[in-house]
């Protein structure tokens, strides 16, 4: 159906308004949401970014629901959260996309709703990394990377998003990586799995908008290399490796201010847009100059 003149003018005015709004928000960020009393579920809460996110949410007064495949690590995080003074519920859960684990996600999600109630914020943080040359990567490692890093998001969102849509409030936060927007050698398996997370979040956000649920937020977080033990030899001549805590603090600040994409550190946002104007060969040589990348590796650790 052809757009009318009035519809076209209305669209142009909205575009102008949104440009001014974006510039204004660069100077005056939105106020942070209050998460006191909110129920926040975090996958991969046993260590690294997941643990730090749990502690940051606890300090802000949220109630925590912690999922991790490692019971000991998960309980350690739960104990730390309790010392902060927050309510916490911990569950051992394999979030991968195998038939057995998918059923496990469904069952534990049902337990959470019975024992805790509907989740207000769901953070998909669990992740795994197998780094190395693509030609020597084992098939089982390729499959597991996609199961943990990508498919798991579908299973958690499908279980926890419906009550958010019904109430027209809630947050889905997915942890991707800065390498999702720029390829890195020896991350040929990891990078596509996280690129899928970025695309998943974009599409989910648009679907939520089409459903007319503006109170439900979908945020994707793209951090630079983080010192979680996930990979060997991450580095850059110009950018220091992030700590899990500073990553969690920046991710939460962006999410609480309603940002759709959160880059850690923040300057990656500007680098991304400048990079979009540069020839590919320039970007390749800049990466070499920075000595950006990781060492080949064959063992894995999860987030």
UniProtKB/TrEMBL annotation:
GO terms for molecular function: all-trans-retinol dehydrogenase (NADP+) activity. Pfam families: adh_short. Keywords: Lipid metabolism, Membrane, NADP, Oxidoreductase, Transmembrane, Transmembrane helix. It is found in: Membrane. The keyword Lipid metabolism applies. InterPro entries: NAD(P)-bd_dom_sf (IPR036291), SDR_fam (IPR002347). Gene3D superfamilies: NAD(P)-binding Rossmann-like Domain. GO terms for cellular component: lipid droplet; membrane. The keyword Lipid metabolism applies. It is a multi-pass membrane protein. Its main location: membrane. Belongs to the short-chain dehydrogenases/reductases (SDR) family. Catalyzes the reduction of all-trans-retinal to all-trans-retinol in the presence of NADPH. This is Short-chain dehydrogenase/reductase 3. It comes from Haliotis discus hannai.
